[in-house]
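step 4 of 6: structure.
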Amino acid sequence: MALLALLALPLIGVFGLLIFKSRWIAVAVSALTVVMTVIIGRYPELLSFFTSISLPSFAVTPLGLLMLILTSVIVLAIVLASDDSPGFLAIILGIQAALFGVFCAQNGLLFYMFWELTLIPAFFMILGWGTGDKVRIAIRFLLYNLVGSFALLTVILYLFLQTHSFAFTDWMAAPLPLASQVWVLIGLFVAFGIKLPLVPFHRWQPETYECLPRSGSMLFSGLLSKLGVYGMLMLMVPLVPHALLVYRPIVLGIVVMSVLYASLVALAETGFKRIVATVSIAHGSLLAAGIFALTPMGIQGSIAQIVAHSLVVAALFLCEPRIRSHFYLGALFLVVLGSIGLPLTIGFIGEFLILLGISQFSLVYAGLAGISVILGAWAMLTLYQSVQSSTEGTYEFSFSEDIVVITLIAAIYILGIFPSVVLI
Amino acid sequence: MTAILVLSGVGILSMIADALQLGRWMRWITGIGLVAAFAATFCPFVIPTTMLVFDETSLTWTRMLIGFTAVLYSLDRHSDGHHHHDALLIFSLIGAVLMTAFSHILMLFLAIEILSIPLYVLAGSGDSHHSLEASMKYFILGSFATAILLFGIALGYAGVPAGALLVVIGLCFKVGAVPFHLWVPDVYEGSPVRFTAFMSIVVKIAAIAGLARFLSWGFGYRPLLIGLAVISMIIGALLALHQTSIKRWMAYSGISHAGFMLVLVALGEVVFPSLLFYALAYGMGSLVVFGLLGAQDQFDDRIDSLTGLFFRHPALSVGLILGLLSLAGIPPLPGFFAKFLVLAHTWHLGLGGVVGVALLASLVSTFVYLKFVSVLFIRK
């Protein structure tokens, strides 16, 4: 019952927005989802309340719960800080509904359906509200993501024909021979690697973030990219553990190269959004590296880094160039520190655990990833310097943006001091 | 059976009404007649005959065909002044219904002729010379296909096994499968939009149903049909990529969908419910697209003419987008489940290569549909 309400709430918000055209509906709905997800996290027994109208293929796993809370918090931040039209906010809530579906689905077909449903509003967001060469960018975004979707669909179809079931539990229970695990691994790697994105599949990402309005970039980088990580943790690791273990040097090698490449490219990029986007590829790849190291510490670090990256990147896009004031430069500085993983921030916990996890498998890979982290930090500090000395930007923070930035920064630092909340 | 009787009655009645110049009653006669024919499919009355069989399969197809025609007819606002077209449309529909129910090969031939001859006229009923050209092309290629079909029937009657193959090829002309598709885009482009819709929905589904029924007599042409299906999917999707005319674009998209349906036809009767579902999903999707585009005051065939439609007609665009997304196979719309069923059945029977090609084709065609959708959002 509680779950059904949670899944329906953003949809109600979408219709409310389309009918009444007031942004306060979006604020109210997203605030309500934050409250609901936190309550569900605190009192999980609420989920079994009124079981007669429960949804059989949906459940809340610990990781799913973390993603739900993160989603609703980021969406609330986006909605509060935005001054966009109701149609735009409706698309944001629509994507939130689809994300909730993905994070709750315990059934391959539902997972795929919600996965695809995130894509369509995102496509319309680029088409309707993008800037620049938006049609070409939207089509490229779509092409890349459709290839990923079809890879995922193939895997789902294969697993369905093997087990005659769509339930995740049946899939996990089915013993797959190594040869077919490898194919499943490749399919899922492409599907999730495009979403994240990892380097060979990343071409769509920087231009998409650059083209979107600020709220859109926050949503794409903070939440949609996390779908890839969620899929890796939820499906890849339990489904193909053997293949991952056998081919760990190759998979991890690709991912570490991706971190290194993106960090180097970030040094050569120009423009605020493009640099943030490219560093975001590096951070996302680092997340994947933590998972594919297949050590408990690496996976824990990845989960912490999901939260860290979402908060940081949302705050970074919020701090796009404006009229320079002490408040703006201070806020940007604090966020940049969070982004480069300074101790006392949640980014530090994530990166440290991930590097530690990789080093338990291979010191070479850990060294390469460590160098990339330093390169990424260099790119971010250069970015801060250029913003500080530039005269770009034409508008100031509004009051609600002040509140959102302060809250996000507080979350980055408080979680950095008390990380046990996110170390599930 | 009763449905065919009702439809024949309605056709004759509307011809008489046209002769007596009762123009304003025509829409009512045809509309109510279509609804009555749909209701009549539930009537168990049958005249004993060896030429036709009305089992559950053919009744389901019949309901689908009459239903689609009725909806198409009700959406059509431009028929005033050309009422003799109604009678021709009804007669063509009778041919389509007969194609789903034949149990004698000559009946198949008659059905195709009854289906086609009114369509040759309807295709040429537009104002421009394009329409006449379309009619002529349709007539010549249609006659060619009929000749092949008839030749096949004659060979089969003489006991030559290749006869059935020629019948299959003749039917593939009507389905519009590659490489027998060359007439499809030209004819669709030249015909008035409401008859294009009729051809791409009712005629195509009827031809698929006819092919399925013919093959259920025990002719095994699975490799050939799967080959045709695979080429159709890919070629249809690829050629749709760079079209500038809506009708040609729909023609190629229909060719691609025909490929998917042919896979199910080739897999035999076990997958029959999936074939029905696919036809239903395809028909509904095309119906939405054609119905909404045809419902505009002035139908403009250029895709560019839809630029920024979302900002001018948001409600219409949302409906159009839903139809296009269903045709593209985006969950949770019916088109997705239809394609999913094709893939699952094919893979289940061990045809992995076909699954690969089908996935590739649906990737391309999804892209094609979404590219079309993106046109609606370009601000002028």
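step 5 of 6: annotate
 - The mean pLDDT of chain A is 89.
 - Residues 2-421 of chain A form one domain.
step 6 of 6: archive
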